[in-house]
Task: inverse folding
């Protein structure tokens, strides 16, 4: 009787399979999360569609997924009243991106400058607080008057929305640099300019990057609101036009397109951030 | 740059503090005296350890010598010259991690020479040399967060030594390390220092470490800090930390110095207890 070999197998087998079991469990868990996510979306859209068709909700006001999809498809294949769909997306993105770049550059420069130079911070501090207290979205109509129906007015409203969060984060980042790092750099022979460029700015990038994510969303908002108020092209104008003709499906369709655009740009930013922050220890909360 | 020949060594001390006093304004608005009327002289090539109770102002003494802070009263001289701003001959190893986390190990060590205007190739060559001496040649592409605490400290040592400092200020540099790593680092420091002929002021709260490393041990009073007593450590060099600890003379010195230091530690503790009550 092979008494010796019988217990040997069960001992060896669980050691080999335990990792497999764990891997399978992790894979199953991931799959079930994806399935549940898809299920939620399908259930939501399905319920919406059914309610609209059976008249529980008024399809004229609330539209329905099939009509929204038809609207998007029509825009893709036949273009919109203002021109092709790609052109509208490109227009809005161009405005948001220019506004974002201008806002980020000025925000970072001024934030670092005021964070490093105490005198400037003391002089300009109160003014910046006052400007920040203004609800900046109401500036959009003023920019429309100043800069006209073209992209300039949308860029301007994107800039004012982007500037403040970026500025405050850069300012805070420059202020909260580890004093040991600055002392070490100075002992090693760095002058003020080098301390700013090689210690303060790298140390503040973490702060600045957190604001970049949020602020790109703000740039899109600025551009869309600007277009909504008055424009010749862009996604915001499509929303306004659809609303003007009581085309609820058009409003939702434009919103859907906007969400997709925003998610894609967000993904690009995350990718850039990962490349830039290779020196940082991986977050324990990564991917959660 | 002042070059000191061995003959003049006795004439011009490397570091000279006379009647140095430093007061800070605390956030609550009161004046806090960290260092009071401090006299201390360090000869070229000498290794001086400064011990004292926690928070007595030992670190402040170092910042005065480095030029990071100015004394409120008194005079601080380095090689006979009045300290005014940061002196390029001074190296400083900090208690906390002060290596740049966004630079690789090699780039951290080249930082000093590059800040001082040395060309990239030459700086890299010098840095590699020092990284090899601290045993980190294989880690030059790593980022600090990928290293252990002891390795980061060695990067800090290489980063400081690469500038060829004539005066080396160390503020409890190994206090965050575990006991074994600390002994290894102390030996490594003695090795690195032996070749340079620079003067060292080494602040610590660990009397073992102080006696094992130094030529002289300075005992500070409870804050505000001033020099209480100075002891000469007549143990032969080269030393290794683990071996020197077992010598009878070491134990004798320890007892002597502790008699002086222990009193100050007790005063500090009683004050803390009084404040807490």
Result:
């Amino acid at each position: 009787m092979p008494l010796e070999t019988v217990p040997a197998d069960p001992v060896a087998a669980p050691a080999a399979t335990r990792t497999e079991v764990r891997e399978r469990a992790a894979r199953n868990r991931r799959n079930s999360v994806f399935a549940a996510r898809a299920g939620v979306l399908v259930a939501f859209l399905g319920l919406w569609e059914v309610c609209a068709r059976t008249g529980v909700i008024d399809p004229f006001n609330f539209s329905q997924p099939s009509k929204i999809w038809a609207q998007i498809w029509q825009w893709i294949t036949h273009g919109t009243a203002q021109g092709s769909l790609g052109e509208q997306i490109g227009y809005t993105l161009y405005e948001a991106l220019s506004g974002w770049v201008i806002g980020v550059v000025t925000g970072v420069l001024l934030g670092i400058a005021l964070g490093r130079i105490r005198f400037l911070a003391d002089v300009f501090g109160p003014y910046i607080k006052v400007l920040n207290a203004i609800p900046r979205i109401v500036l959009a109509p003023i920019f429309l008057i100043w800069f006209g129906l073209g992209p300039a007015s949308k860029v301007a409203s994107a800039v004012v929305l982007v500037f403040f969060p970026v500025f405050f984060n850069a300012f805070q980042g420059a202020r909260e640099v580890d004093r040991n790092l600055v002392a070490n750099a100075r002992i090693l022979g760095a002058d003020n300019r080098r301390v700013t460029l090689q210690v303060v700015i790298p140390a503040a990038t973490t702060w600045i990057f957190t604001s970049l994510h949020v602020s790109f969303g703000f740039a899109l908002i600025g551009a869309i609101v600007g277009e909504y108020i008055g424009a010749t092209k862009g996604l915001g104008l499509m929303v306004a036009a659809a609303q003007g003709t009581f085309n609820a499906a058009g409003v939702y369709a434009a919103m859907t397109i906007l969400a997709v655009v925003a998610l894609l740009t967000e993904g690009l930013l995350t990718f850039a951030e990962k490349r830039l922050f290779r020196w940082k220890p991986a977050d324990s909360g990564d991917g959660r | 740059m002042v070059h000191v020949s061995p003959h003049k060594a006795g004439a011009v001390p490397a570091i000279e503090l006379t009647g140095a006093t430093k007061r800070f304004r605390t956030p609550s608005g009161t004046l806090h005296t960290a260092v009071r009327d401090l006299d201390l002289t360090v000869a070229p090539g000498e290794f001086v350890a400064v011990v004292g109770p926690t928070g007595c102002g030992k670190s402040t003494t170092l910042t005065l010598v480095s030029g990071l802070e100015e004394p409120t009263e008194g005079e601080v001289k380095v090689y006979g010259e009045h300290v005014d701003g940061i002196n390029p001959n001074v190296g400083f190893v900090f208690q906390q991690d002060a290596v740049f986390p966004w630079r690789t190990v090699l780039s951290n060590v080249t930082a000093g020479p590059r800040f001082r205007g040395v060309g990239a190739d030459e700086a890299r060559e010098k840095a590699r040399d020092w990284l090899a001496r601290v045993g980190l040649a294989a880690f030059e592409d790593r980022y600090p967060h990928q290293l252990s605490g002891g390795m980061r400290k060695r990067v800090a040592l290489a980063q400081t030594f690469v500038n060829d400092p004539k005066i080396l200020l160390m503020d409890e540099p190994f206090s965050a390390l575990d006991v074994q790593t600390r002994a290894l680092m102390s030996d490594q420091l003695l090795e690195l220092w032996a070749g340079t002929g620079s003067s060292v002021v080494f602040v610590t709260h660990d009397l073992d470490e102080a006696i094992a490393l130094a030529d002289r041990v300075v005992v500070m009073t409870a804050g505000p800090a001033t020099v209480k007593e100075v002891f000469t450590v007549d143990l032969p060099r080269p030393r290794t930390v683990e071996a020197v600890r077992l010598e009878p003379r070491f134990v004798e010195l320890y007892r002597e110095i502790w008699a002086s230091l222990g009193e100050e530690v007790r005063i500090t503790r009683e004050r803390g207890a009084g404040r807490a009550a």
Summary: The longest helix of chain A spans residues 5-54. Confidence is low (pLDDT under 50) at residues 1-12, 284-288 of chain A. The interface with chain B takes residues 178, 180-181, 183-191, 194, 198-199, 202-203, 205, 278-281 of chain A (CB under 8 Å).
